[in-house]
TrEMBL record:
Species the sequence originates in: Arboricoccus pini
CDD domains (alphabetical): FGGY_EcGK_like
Residue positions binding sn-glycerol 3-phosphate: T18, R88, E89, Y140, D249
EC number(s) from the headed UniProt entry: 2.7.1.30
Regulation: Inhibited by fructose 1,6-bisphosphate (FBP).
Listed name of the protein: Glycerol kinase
Domain Carbohydrate kinase FGGY N-terminal: 10-256
InterPro entries named in the record: ATPase_NBD (IPR043129), Carb_kinase_FGGY (IPR000577), Carb_kinase_FGGY_CS (IPR018483), FGGY_C (IPR018485), FGGY_N (IPR018484), Glycerol_kin (IPR005999)
Record-linked SUPFAM superfamilies: Actin-like ATPase domain
Pathway: Polyol metabolism; glycerol degradation via glycerol kinase pathway; sn-glycerol 3-phosphate from glycerol: step 1/1
GO biological-process terms attached to the record: glycerol catabolic process; glycerol-3-phosphate metabolic process
Boundaries of every Carbohydrate kinase FGGY C-terminal domain copy: 266-463
Similarity section: Belongs to the FGGY kinase family.
Keywords for the protein's UniProt record, in alphabetical order: ATP-binding, Glycerol metabolism, Kinase, Nucleotide-binding, Transferase
Length: 514
């Protein structure tokens, strides 16, 4: 269907992700009307360091929005509102007067503060961090990255103390630029990833700010995910557009998947994998080292989630493609892996940047086990896909236990756990089947798999009356495909055991195990 055959209102989602920046325009029924995308340059200045250029992020943002509007055959005035969604935890500091960043953005994957985090753990700060923020001490989150900038970029601490600088995640930086410095805000989901935000009281935490020695004047105001975030400067797109929604990308995907009820679970498979389980108005504390986070906040009321974050999912296939040159495209992994009954006893633990949930081991490194004389490239491809499924199975086991502890078991104990999946990898049917097999649950793939962008559009639509309630949005969500477990239970148990043996051998303290 062409844009002209469709009718407004139109919502524009800006999805600023780790590897690319996308603008997607949806109509009210979540049909895609126009889109544009730009790859984002990655900087690896040193082992374990990952940076982005904030000026690239800004230039790409403006360019993809203009292009998407043009491709949709629309004008800025036709867009009801913009929803912003972004790679989370990536940390920026800029000058309040000029808007100029003082350093490149330090990306969520960056491990430069690993030693500092170990020192903080030894100092006994972790229980306070867990209680207030729902997080664990890890280089992943903003706080230690921000401290690094204040301590390593000459003059920044003094300038911060004089109130001259602003800190924010990518959403805040974009809001600042869109509004020419008039708005310094973030939403509660992005704030909940900083390690400085009290998720129960929904405010910045003075004790943590003091412990990290962070001047409060740096911080943005924290607001709901749907509301008034200001207008884009008129010169940018021809006329001003209202910004009416903001959420971190994994939370936006949760919203785009219409996971509005406690017990609903989504898992997104891109560079990494991030699974969020809605726990309603209760901030459930994990007994399995999962994170407690804000899923979304509307009308001042937070809805919480527990989250399992896996750092490497699709990135393992990129590695097979770019470094080992075993495949030409990630997509061909489906046929290659599907040509084998299993990985032939080969296990790949893709801990390239350490292990995330539930292990949280920044010093673990990747390994391949079980090689024999007849192992070939196809086994490695299968092992890479299976590793994504095994890691998800670790998360679902942890989710199930946490729910039991919290007395939040699914409404019907005999109903299979359902995971709504999305992200670039889930085009792969072999992966979806392995997810169903190893997690022993039903996998639902929506008709629209751009759920991150869709979630941001939904939030902007809620704020502007395009949708009246979340129920309107839930009615739009449609299943595209379903996968059910087919693997024999004994094989499932044996393969998971093989995986856990492999994981225990890459742990930096291998005695710890799971
Ligand atoms: N058909 C496929 N099978 C397996 N992996 C895929 C497939 N298509 C894309 N990928 C992987 O998905 C990732 C891209 O997904 P995307 O959601 O765009 O990621 P991100 O938002 O993290 O940049 C890449 O790592 C790529 O290797
Ligand atoms: O940009 P993505 O899709 O790789 O997501 C990154 C996450 O938000 C990191 O927490």
């Amino acid at each position: 269907m062409t844009a002209t055959a469709m009718r407004g209102p139109y919502l524009l989602a800006l999805d600023q992700g780790t590897t690319s920046t996308r603008a997607i325009i949806f109509d009210r029924a979540a049909r895609l009307v126009g889109s544009a995308q730009r790859e984002l340059q990655q900087f690896y200045p040193h082992d374990g360091m990952v940076e982005h250029d904030p000026e690239h992020i800004w230039a790409d943002t403006v360019a993809v929005i203009r292009k998407a509007i043009q491709r949709a055959g629309l004008e800025a005035a036709d867009i009801t509102a913009i929803g912003i969604t972004n790679q989370r935890e990536t940390t920026l500091v800029w000058d309040r007067r000029t808007g100029e960043p003082v350093h490149k953005a330090i990306v969520w994957q960056d491990r430069r503060t690993a030693a500092f985090c170990r020192q903080l753990q030894r100092s006994g700060l972790e229980p306070l961090v867990q209680e207030r923020t729902g997080l664990l001490i890890d280089p992943y989150f903003c706080a230690t990255k921000l401290v690094w900038i204040l301590d390593h970029v000459e003059g920044t601490r003094a300038r911060a103390e004089r109130g001259e600088l602003a800190f924010g995640t990518v959403d805040s930086f974009l809001l600042w630029r869109f509004t020419s410095g008039r708005v310094h805000k973030t939403d509660a989901t992005n704030a909940s990833r900083t390690m400085l935000f009290d998720i129960e009281r929904q405010c910045w935490d003075d004790d943590l700010l003091e412990a990290f020695n962070i001047p409060p004047s740096l911080l943005p105001e924290v607001v709901d995910c749907a509301g008034e975030f200001g207008l884009t400067q008129r010169e940018l797109f021809g006329s001003a557009i209202a910004i009416a929604g903001v959420a971190g990308d994994q939370q936006a995907a949760t919203f785009g998947q219409a996971c509005f009820e406690p017990g609903m679970l989504k898992s997104t498979y891109g560079t990494g994998c991030f699974a969020l389980l809605n726990t309603g108005d209760k901030a459930v504390r994990s007994t399995n080292r999962l994170l407690t986070t804000v899923a979304y906040r509307l009308d001042g009321r937070p809805t919480f989630a527990i989250e399992g974050s896996i750092f490497v999912a699709g990135a393992a296939l990129q590695w097979l493609r770019d470094e080992l040159r075993m495949i030409w495209t990630a997509a061909e992994s489906e046929a290659i892996a599907g040509s084998l009954p299993d990985s032939g006893g080969v296990y790949m633990v893709p801990a390239f940047t350490g292990l995330g949930a539930p292990y949280w081991d920044p010093d673990a490194r990747g390994a391949i086990f079980g090689l024999t004389r007849d192992t070939n490239g196809r086994h490695l491809v299968r092992a890479a896909l299976d590793a994504v499924a095994y890691q998800t199975a670790d998360l679902t086991a942890a989710f199930a236990e946490d729910l039991r502890h919290a007395g939040l078991e699914r409404q019907r104990a005999d109903a299979p756990l359902v995971i709504r999946v999305d992200g670039g990898m889930v085009a792969n049917n072999r992966l979806c089947q392995s997810l169903a097999d190893y997690c022993a649950c039903t996998i639902e793939r929506p008709a629209v798999t751009e759920t991150t962008a869709l979630g941001a559009a939904f939030l902007a639509g809620l704020a502007t009356g395009v949708y009246e309630t979340k129920a309107d949005i839930a009615a739009i969500w449609q299943r595209g495909a379903q996968f059910n477990p087919e693997l024999d239970t004994d094989l499932r148990v044996a393969h998971l055991k093989g995986w856990h043996d492999a994981v225990s051998r890459v742990r930096s303290n291998s005695a710890e195990g799971l």
